[in-house]
Amino acid sequence: MASFSELIQADKPLLVDFFAEWCGPCHAMKPILENFKKQVGDKLTIIKVDVDKNQAVAATYGIQSIPTLILFKQGKILWRQAGAVNAQQLTQALASYL
Questions:
Q1: In angstroms, rounded to a whole number, what is the distance separating the alpha carbons of residues 33 and 17?
Q2: Terminal CA-to-CA distance of the chain, rounded, Å?
Q3: Within 13 Å of residue 61, how many CA atoms lie on the same side as its CB?
Q4: What is the pTM of this model?
């Protein structure tokens, strides 16, 4: 399996959902992200990173509240959002990057 640093270097945009199992708003994001993935298909990869199990990665990116979504491409952060968003906000925010 590729490391996190390898995944964010990809040419295809990578949306990372930093979450925790105990986080209510994080659970609310799951169906929104699943539907978003169906809309965009192969234009985007989405992964989930549990901040409790991956504390070093969370610390590297300064994750202070969850959920936090970060869009990476070729190692660069293109977009970042702390807190839950609805499907329309997510689609509007990411449309220009896909």
A1: 9
A2: 25
A3: 27
A4: 0.95
